[in-house]
């Protein structure tokens, strides 16, 4: 498993996406977070295909911060089953990866 990951979360409102970004970065659970949107999502829910406008949140962190970050997202998220998935960062420049590690180190928590 990769030491570095990008976590993806979708939300139904831009302000909720922004609150999630601020919370995870402030708590040093992610080194950075970006919001992309609006996007259109098509998915199964409650036995039917639905389509909705959403905002995509991308967060860069380390694998060992995933559980704490997921807990933080769930506390702020309105969905019953929010999308919280991690994608490994297979390659990155050494200075960028070191920055992620340094900015998300648990000893830096405030």
Write up what this structure looks like.
By secondary structure, this protein is an alpha+beta fold. It has helices at 14-26, 66-76, 94-103, and strands spanning 4-11, 32-45, 48-62, 84-88. Strand 2 and strand 3 form a beta hairpin.
Rounded to an integer, what's the Rg over CA atoms? 14 Å
Whole-number mean pLDDT: 95
Helix content range: 25-40%
Q: Poorly predicted ranges (pLDDT <50, ≥5 residues)?
A: none
Please tell me what the overall shape is.
Answer: elongated
The appropriate CATH architecture is 2-Layer Sandwich
Strand content: 35-45%
Whole-number tally of structural domains? 1
Short description:
The protein is an alpha+beta fold.
Reconstruct the topology from this structure:
Blueprint: E1 4-11, H1 14-26, E2 32-45, E3 48-62, H2 66-76, E4 84-88, H3 94-103
Antiparallel strand pairs: 1-3, 1-4, 2-3
Helix pairs in contact: 1-2
């Amino acid at each position: 498993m990769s030491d570095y990951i990008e976590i993806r979360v979708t939300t139904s409102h831009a302000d909720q996406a922004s609150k999630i970004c601020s919370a995870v970065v402030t708590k040093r659970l992610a080194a950075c977070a970006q919001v992309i949107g609006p996007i259109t999502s098509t998915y199964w829910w409650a036995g039917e295909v639905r389509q909705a406008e959403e905002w995509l949140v991308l967060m860069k962190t380390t694998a060992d911060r995933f559980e704490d970050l997921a807990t933080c997202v769930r506390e702020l998220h309105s969905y019953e089953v929010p999308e919280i998935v991690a994608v490994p960062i297979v390659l990155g420049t050494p200075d960028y990866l070191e920055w992620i590690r340094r900015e998300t180190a648990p000893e830096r928590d405030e």
